Amino acid sequence: MKEIDQNEFEQELNAHKNLVLDFYSTECPPCEALAPKFEALDELYGNDIRFVKIFRQGNRELAEKLGVRSSPTLLFFQDGTQVGEVLRGGIRRSDIMRQLDALLPGKRVKEIRSKIKPEVIDTEAIVLGGGPAGLAAAIYLAQARVDTVVVDPMLPGGQVATTHQVSNYPGFVDPIPGYMLSHYMAEQAKVAGARMKVAVEVSGVDLEKKQVEVDGYQTIRGKTLLIATGASPRYLGVEGEQEFYGKGISYCATCDAKYYHDKEVVIIGGGNTAVEESEFISKFVKKITMVQQLPHLTANKAAQEKAMADPKIEILYSHEPRGFYREGDKMGVRVEDLDSGETKMLHTDGVFVFVGMKPNLDLVPGDLDTDDWGYLKVDSEMRTSIPGVFAAGDVVSKPIRQITTAVSDGTIASIVMARELQ
Questions:
Q1: Which tens digit of pLDDT belongs to each residue from 214-242?
Q2: pLDDT tens per residue, range 382-408
């Protein structure tokens, strides 16, 4: 693999029939996650495809010319022409391979794929999930000299990474951006010695054997395993929700509020997340209509007071959404008045949905004890119903889910795990 600058790009492009270019940045967690995959695939495909990388900030002219605005970004070229899909952010090995395969004849792809040999990684502790619970556990385990591997299909941080500001995490006088808090946690785990397998494709989890299969060829075997996969937004299940997901409907204020500058939006929900995120969204938009199914908000009192004092926020109590529709460049939200049964249409530029969470257990076999809502049951030491398997964070059945409670769970689990491994 060769690192180039923008002055060498045309020469490389003309000299090689197939080329893949990685625009990277320093102090970039997704870039760090991509680097070992990119290097390994260079060894596999390098005789047929040229692998080059370029520092984005130091080569802005080329980045702008090629439309690259984030790191990492992978571009694929054949016969001097850009082809295929542009890959950005938390890039999976399987997605890169799919693009590489498209550059080569089928026979050659089979020959290359036949060289991929199964790989087994033995460790003492597997942490499945890289949010606050998993990272806290990884820090404690690694500092206790327990060989630890953190596995996450996404990038470290979990929900915290997409949170605008965290103002109540101990140790930070001023609010800290969620992505930075996530970054600090992940870096601390790495410095302590934890190995990170992030932005990977988890193809199988065997709780009895304490092993996790990733990227189709690696099997990570542990002596103990922690499930810290967190929770994700709960969907409404009404007409148009899936159709317009990402096309007018969002579940992430940090990701999308900036696209609604001086526009009007509807927020569905009245709990902590909905009300707290409305404060952030209000910085961008002209008006917010909050649709709450109850005759009152359920967020904490401080958040409620801020929302009610915000002249941009109008709250529609005792209403529920019944459908989402496209109206040219705008969205229509059909809501029902739960007292009268009447329906009406709200016309808006975009919709944010914050109606609760569900445990992320799609990767985990369904033979663990759960509560009525599907969250994992654990004892006071974070043990699940399977010996040697622990759980921590938002995936666990408990009354309060906060960053601090997730960190607490991970701390307890890791100390017990370390003791068992002694």
A1: 998 999 999 999 999 999 888 899 999 98
A2: 999 999 999 999 999 998 888 999 999
- pLDDT at position 1 is 82
Residue 151 structure tokens: 């596995």
The token pair that represents 141 in the structure block:
């385990």
Is 159 in contact with 203 (CB distance < 8 Å)?
Answer: no
48: annotated active-site residue = no
pLDDT in tens, 308-337: 999 999 999 999 999 999 999 999 999 999
For residue 256, indicate whether it is catalytic: yes
Q: What was the pLDDT predicted at 162?
A: 73
Going by their DSSP bridges, the two strands 287-291 and 313-316 should be labelled as parallel
| Amino acid identity, position 262 | D
Task: Catalytic residue, from 206, 255, 369, 371: name it.
Answer: 255
Distance CA 410, CA 415 (A): 9
196 backbone dihedrals φ, ψ, rounded to 5°? -110, 125
**CB-CB contact of 128 with 151 (8 Å):** yes
Contacts of 2 (CB under 8 A, 6+ apart): 12, 50, 51, 52, 53
The question of whether 252 is a catalytic residue gets the answer: yes
Spatial strand order of the sheet with 148-152 comes to 195-198, 148-152, 125-128, 224-227, 389-391
The one catalytic residue among 48, 101, 147, 252: 252
* pLDDT tens sequence across 174-211: 988 888 999 999 999 999 999 999 989 999 999 999 99
Q: What is the mean pLDDT of residues 280-293?
A: 96
pTM of the shown model: 0.77
Report all structural domains of the chain as residue ranges with CATH numbers, in order of start: 2-113 (3.40.30.10), 120-232+357-421 (3.50.50.60), 249-353 (3.50.50.60)
Catalytic member of 152, 256, 394, 409 = 256
